[in-house]
């Protein structure tokens, strides 16, 4: 009781809060990253460390790793932001014409107005044409495009629609493991059942339909599987799935009545010889009406990856295929509650899907910048796998695409034991030690899921070549030290 | 069965989808707005109508209604977007220094990098100082600031944390009616119980603590009330609550153990003489440690309203006060799943809370633009209430703040009967007819909630003065016609 005669207890505590939120885990920005930020502060305060800077190879963030923005994209965005610049003859005409077109499609001619909740119509049209070009002419209806605040937003929204039921009718969602933790986090928050199906590490993280069947049968005993999520090219695993694999998956989804979610945010990040990106949509349509008129598919894309790496703008989209029209109306209603995705991001997406053409003044520079970035990434992918595979006790699949390697670590029983005594996953223990001793920040494999008894870390290939070389050398050195210490 | 021997049913239908999503309603972008968009298309196609343009007075979107962006804000944003412009002597030094400071606080010096999930630290510091100035020096800790993708995002996140339980332990959230439908939509989606407490229309939409008690007691029979949401200045009602009212609410929350959510996105939109904005935080702290050390408060703000009206950038923040540290850690984890709020929006927010100072070159222009916009809004608020109150059968409270009027409509029994026969709410019937006959798009009161048997519409005061005059004249004319027709 207080002076005022009332007894006040805290309303919101970990005991009273939403229990589903408590279940959520998100390793990419988890304890390792929090500690990395702390260490950075300590370094600034003059604390002595065996290193002088923290290198964050934990997150797929190109600009954070020093990649410069693509000139044309930023020119158009600056023009949209401050249209007075349209009078400035320092800006090329193709940038200006795009900016004018975007501004004309904004309410009141300003990117400061809310847009339609589904996204600006002109941008959706441009996205649709882009998808048609990508897929060799397979038609794309702009009404099936929903722009979003990063792909994350669209993925969460689609999962939201899918989840229902309690007990054995509870929605199960299949996801290939290792997975990007947005999926596990969202399923936990929504109270859905996560159904793990394991990628085949021995076969370069390919997906085997037998494993899909195994996982599905096991899951049917306790929930109602309704969707299957595939990330291709893969995060954290960096593989690019073959056309056959995608056909298998589509056939599987068709036979087993599953809604397909294809996370294709790395579609332009394919490096390995012999690897090629096949969109789920294209394969679906090429399999004939038997499939293309039936299988429900949501495909996600983002401006955060590829060559532009514009994560901060939070732009992305989902294309929905064969979505029930009534469900589509529900989707449209649902997205309207948050009003609209960020309009600068929509403008950026528009330029990404509508880049300078050969007859336009910015074409040469644009192509040069794009090619340089993608070539560098390809080189770094190769260098990463080569150097890591030289380390005894580390095995690394080729980085065919995306921006990551997910090498396997041979950890000794002693190391595993010591981690367990600390209450840590063995690869968390490893990554924490790596951070403290070298300043390199990676994410332990346990944050993504992995086969019981295997250990990994995820590392991005994004640091500039010189720095990446140093990072790899340090990891190598550390791994040898670690192995000796716990042998 | 198909040729391939499998039987495919649609996975996702309105029968199998998430039932909570089905419950969601969102009137501000509901059927009226869909019809308005259709009519716009019809007009373009040359269909004859008794009007030549659709006027959307349904949404609080300043730029869509022709308000021009504030120069200084856009200059800084253009500089952040295309840093090459920092070399351009057309941009004032104060804009450049702000852009440099923002860019330095971005990873890799680019607004294209993900930021910390809670928001850029420098921006949170600037927000904290802004809040301290606003509240006469009451301290604000940047660690308690979470930047968000519009206030919407922060509101949804806080509600998410609060919701738990089933049956009688299910979380109840009190909300003053009429309310902004983001609240009802989010509560439906989260499966929480919405507890309605009615504002007093007769007393200028003030909030009476007896009504809070009534609603709370009634709700305790079937759920567990845990939070109270107040929108001040009010949307859709346009009132500004008195200091006494806010004290009453805080005392009520303290006594009844409720988490307070103060939606203060219209804090700079106060027009009426004698009205003043009092932040919940300031009042809380001035009530002494008995309250300021105990009552849990989340206060929301946005760049979408005020003088800047930058809705498209999707920027906002929440300040949390007395939040349990463990819950705070959960909040930090939860926001990390979506990576980060849009960085251009964070940059914009930084400039809004850190505007040009008297000794800086942009100060005069900035102040002039700001004052012009706010003065115009004040004039339009006055004009709106004056003209509407001249219409027999319409009663309109003073528009003390925000951007809306929510006048009461006297509808005849015949009109109500005819609406019912059509399966429509009477004010939906009214607004639909208004749209079809005049092209004016308003939102029916039923979309926000209102006392049984009363009818309203919400109209923004945002059209330019000349257009607003026409809108009001048309509404007047229409109301008279409608009244005669159904008398
Ligand atoms: C596989 C995958 N999907 C989705 C996302 C989300 O990206 P964004 O929300 O920035 O578009 C990421 C980001 O790293 C990712 O790796
Ligand atoms: C009362 C209130 N709260 C929150 C919002 C959300 O605004 P935003 O998400 O654009 O910041 C609005 C928008 O109209 C509003 O009126």
UniProtKB/TrEMBL annotation, chains A, B:
GO terms for cellular component: cytoplasm; extracellular space. Residues 84-474 form the Aminotransferase class I/classII large domain. Its cofactor is pyridoxal 5'-phosphate. Pathway: Amino-acid degradation; L-alanine degradation via transaminase pathway; pyruvate from L-alanine: step 1/1. It holds the Pfam family Aminotran_1_2. It comes from the Eukaryota. Keywords: Acetylation, Aminotransferase, Cytoplasm, Phosphoprotein, Pyridoxal phosphate, Transferase. Its EC number is 2.6.1.2. PANTHER family: ALANINE AMINOTRANSFERASE, ALANINE TRANSAMINASE. Catalyzes the reversible transamination between alanine and 2-oxoglutarate to form pyruvate and glutamate. Participates in cellular nitrogen metabolism and also in liver gluconeogenesis starting with precursors transported from skeletal muscles. Homodimer. Belongs to the class-I pyridoxal-phosphate-dependent aminotransferase family. Alanine aminotransferase subfamily. This is Alanine aminotransferase 1. It comes from Chanos chanos (Milkfish). The gene is LOC115811577.
């Amino acid at each position: 009781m207080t002076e005022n005669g009332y007894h006040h207890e805290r309303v919101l505590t970990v005991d009273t809060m939403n229990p589903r939120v408590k279940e959520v885990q998100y390793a990419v920005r988890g304890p390792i990253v929090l500690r990395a930020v702390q260490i950075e502060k300590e370094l600034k305060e003059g604390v002595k460390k065996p290193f002088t800077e923290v290198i964050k190879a934990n997150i797929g963030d190109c600009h954070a790793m020093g990649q410069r923005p693509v000139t044309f994209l930023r020119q158009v965005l600056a023009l949209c932001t401050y249209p007075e610049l349209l009078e400035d003859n320092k800006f090329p005409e193709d940038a200006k014409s795009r900016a004018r077109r975007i501004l004309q499609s904004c309410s009141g001619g300003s990117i400061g107005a809310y847009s339609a909740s589904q996204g600006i119509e002109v941008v959706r049209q441009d996205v649709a044409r882009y998808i048609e070009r990508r897929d060799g002419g397979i038609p794309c209806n702009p009404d099936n495009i929903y722009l979003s605040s990063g792909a994350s937003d669209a993925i969460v929204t689609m999962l939201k629609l899918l989840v229902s039921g309690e007990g054995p009718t509870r929605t199960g969602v299949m996801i290939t493991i290792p997975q990007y933790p947005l999926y596990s986090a969202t399923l936990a928050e929504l109270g859905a059942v996560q159904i793990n199906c394991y990628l085949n590490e021995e076969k370069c993280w390919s997906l085997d339909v037998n494993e899909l069947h195994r996982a599905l049968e096991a899951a049917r005993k306790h929930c109602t599987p309704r969707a299957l999520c595939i990330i291709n090219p893969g995060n954290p695993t960096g593989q690019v799935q073959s056309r056959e694999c995608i056909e298998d998956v589509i056939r599987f989804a068709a036979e087993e009545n599953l809604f397909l979610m294809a996370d294709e945010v790395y579609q332009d990040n394919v490096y390995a010889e012999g690897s090629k990106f096949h969109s789920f949509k294209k394969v679906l349509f090429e399999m004939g009406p038997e499939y293309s008129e039936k299988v429900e598919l949501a495909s996600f894309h983002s401006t955060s990856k590829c060559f532009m790496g514009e994560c901060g703008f939070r732009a992305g989209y989902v294309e929905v295929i064969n979505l029930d029209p009534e469900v589509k109306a529900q989707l449209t209603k649902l997205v309207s509650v948050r009003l609209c995705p960020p309009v600068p991001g929509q403008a950026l997406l528009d330029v990404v899907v509508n880049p300078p053409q050969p007859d336009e003044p910015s074409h040469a520079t644009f192509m040069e910048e794009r090619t340089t970035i993608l070539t560098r990434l390809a080189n770094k992918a190769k260098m990463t796998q080569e150097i890591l595979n030289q380390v005894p006790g580390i095995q690394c699949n080729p980085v065919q695409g995306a921006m990551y390697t997910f090498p396997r670590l041979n950890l000794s029983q002693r190391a595993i034991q010591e981690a367990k005594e600390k209450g840590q996953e063995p690869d968390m223990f490893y990554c924490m030690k790596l951070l403290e001793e070298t300043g390199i920040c990676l994410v332990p494999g346990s944050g993504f899921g992995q086969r019981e008894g295997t250990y990994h870390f995820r590392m991005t290939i994004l640091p500039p070549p010189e720095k990446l070389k140093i990072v790899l050398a340090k990891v190598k050195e550390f791994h040898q030290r670690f192995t000796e210490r716990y042998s």
